[in-house]
Amino acid sequence: FWRNLETESYTLMSVGLAMIALRTYARIKKLGLNGLQADDYVMLTAIVWYVMTVVGLNGLAQSAGTALAVPGEDVFALSEEVVEARQYGAKITFMAEQGMLNVIWTLKACMLIMYSRLTFAATNHLFVRILSIYTAVGWVACQLTLFLECRPFNSYWQIAPSPDMNCMVYWTFAAVQCTFNISSDLAMLCVPLPMVIGVKVPLRQKMILIVLFSMGIFVIGAAILTKVAFWKDVYDINFMYWYIREASVAVYVSNLPCIWPLIREAVPGVRSFFGGS
């Protein structure tokens, strides 16, 4: 399992980091180094959380386990070495959850900042502002849940006796994170939706908008599948694949609009096919 995860995750991350680098280059080329805007700097911070997520999940996949006890297991009979190894795995789990939460919300912030520049109509601009507040409240709610649902805090990596289920599998956090994550993503899709449906341009020029919209739907789908796999069986570790896919495609969606001009210039035929899009 862990070798397949390692191959897929680092491949997806390499593409994501390359897109962030291309985005930064494209923005500097367009605006100059001193002209970079808030979302450009926020995107650079996403690198830290993105790498933390991928490295953390790979470390978890290769660990000896976490605080989650196997049914029927006598945790008091575990050797000191096994206890320490599983405590390490439990700490990596917390790190990976922090990384995932922050990379997703950092990317949301980037998109909202970009939307705030592009929505000139008063109604749309107000919607983006309200959505920004809602998204910020969601991040705070997730962080409070993550730090308060398991008390005392070090019970997150307590092995014997087994701690409360919230400490072992983050039940409450998963519900709060899922609610705010999916609802804010759905709301964010409503911002460019009128452009996809109503803009009066040839279909070829609409295709890039359709691709972005479809990728946004995939991010939501990945978030749903992650939680479905998790709630169906807390011992099923395949949710890690969907965590990484969700984070990676979110990185792609957030950066593609900024690197699209570079693609049109660099790839023969793209400019003529899509026209001035």
UniProtKB/TrEMBL annotation:
Organism superkingdom: Eukaryota
Protein topology in the membrane: Multi-pass membrane protein
Any one GO CC term of the record: membrane
Transmembrane region(s): 12-28, 40-61, 99-115, 127-148, 208-230, 242-263
Keywords: Membrane, Transmembrane, Transmembrane helix
Main location: membrane
Residues covered by the Rhodopsin domain: 22-264
Localization, UniProt: Membrane
Protein family (similarity comment): Belongs to the SAT4 family.
Protein name: Rhodopsin domain-containing protein
